[in-house]
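User: Hi! I have a protein structure encoded as tokens and I'd like to know what sequence might fold into it. I'm fairly new to this, so please keep things simple.
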């Protein structure tokens, strides 16, 4: 990429203009932000996903369907995936579709493995027929690592694992992607990589069982939000930092064959770990909501401590997040406040994207 030591990699609108991009998961929270940003760059976006599973959803509020060629397809159905991509010529693929709620995975592990592992396999198998692909990036999770809860930040070379079905499904997806890369995509000269993002927050997330969405729902209902593990720490990352990292990574994969094929993306370096309780307190204060309440879940399998080392992204891409956890929370809650006051969801996203680009 030609990024010098210590430089900050920038998103290149010229790179994306006119690119034919397949974006799976475009109906979700992160996927909607990615679709909006790619369209701002002039990319031709084909979205492939299930219909939104919550209401309201950013996909509907921001009219993302009108920004993409939106295909409602179940990745668990290989015939449907193959039919959806038949006759489409693609340059780049950003695979974000997944079942991503930990407690949903515990309640329905079979469907979670079917979505996160076999859904990825079905997509990669269908992509083998593409002749113009430049690069494919599959998004997994910071939870793919075997976590002994020592507090140490995980690096890309650490062992994969997972003691709950969500984590295990994402680790298994990593192995599936590696096998397809070595067997099919590398011989075809198409970089296929994985990105492991932190816990992402941002405006427009209304997913069930997600901390920010729970805070917003509680504030609007004038009731306290309930926390299961307020002491747990997570690598909180704003959605703009996360999506920017993914797009910069795809640019590099398409431009430089020596780019590493697995990479962590996490919060702004140097920031301290922020607990679930601290994040909830910041959100409650920003929205003027009632104080949160603790209701322990003694049988929970969720990790108490999780941190990732994103230094490889700095070394290989020159990329690092711009927001620490308090800044990410402030930006997130500002989006919800403005939206509750009548602000248009798409305009709010576009404004925050433009402000983010202006900080480059």
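Assistant: Happy to help. Inverse folding works backwards from shape to sequence: for each of the 360 positions I chose a residue that suits the local structure. Here it is:
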């Amino acid at each position: 990429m030609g990024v010098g030591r210590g430089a900050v990699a920038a998103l290149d609108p010229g790179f994306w203009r006119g690119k034919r991009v397949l974006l799976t998961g475009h109906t979700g929270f992160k996927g909607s932000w990615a679709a909006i940003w790619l369209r701002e760059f002039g990319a031709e976006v084909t979205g492939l996903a299930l219909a939104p599973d919550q209401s309201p959803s950013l996909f509907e509020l921001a009219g993302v369907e009108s920004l993409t060629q939106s295909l409602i397809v179940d990745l668990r159905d290989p015939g449907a995936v193959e039919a959806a991509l038949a006759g489409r010529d693609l340059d780049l693929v950003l695979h974000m579709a997944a079942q991503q709620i930990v407690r949903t995975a515990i309640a329905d592990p079979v469907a979670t493995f079917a979505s996160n592992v076999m859904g990825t396999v079905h997509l990669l198998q269908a992509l083998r027929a593409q002749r113009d692909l430049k690069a494919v990036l599959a998004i997994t999770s910071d939870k793919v690592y075997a976590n002994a809860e020592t507090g140490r930040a995980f690096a890309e070379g650490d062992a994969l694992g997972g003691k709950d079905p969500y984590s295990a499904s994402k680790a298994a997806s990593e192995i599936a992607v590696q096998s397809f890369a070595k067997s099919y995509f590398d011989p075809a000269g198409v970089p296929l990589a994985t990105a492991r993002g932190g816990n992402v927050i941002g405006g427009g997330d209304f997913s069930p069982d997600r901390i920010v969405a729970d805070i917003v729902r509680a504030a609007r209902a004038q009731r306290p939000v309930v926390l299961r593990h307020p002491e747990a720490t997570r690598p909180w990352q704003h959605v703009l930092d996360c999506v920017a990292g993914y797009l910069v990574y795809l640019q590099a994969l398409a431009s430089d064959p020596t780019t590493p094929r697995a990479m962590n993306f996490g919060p702004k370096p140097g920031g301290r770990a922020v607990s679930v309780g601290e994040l909830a307190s910041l959100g409650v204060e920003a929205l003027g909501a009632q104080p949160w309440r603790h209701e322990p879940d003694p049988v929970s399998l969720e990790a108490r401590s999780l941190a990732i080392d994103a230094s490889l992204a700095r070394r290989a891409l020159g990329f690092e997040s711009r927001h620490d956890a308090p800044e990410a929370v402030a930006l997130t809650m500002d989006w919800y406040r403005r939206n509750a006051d009548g602000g248009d969801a798409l305009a709010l996203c576009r404004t925050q994207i433009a402000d983010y680009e202006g900080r480059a």
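A useful reference point when you look it over: The first helix runs from residue 13 to 16. Feel free to ask if any position seems puzzling.
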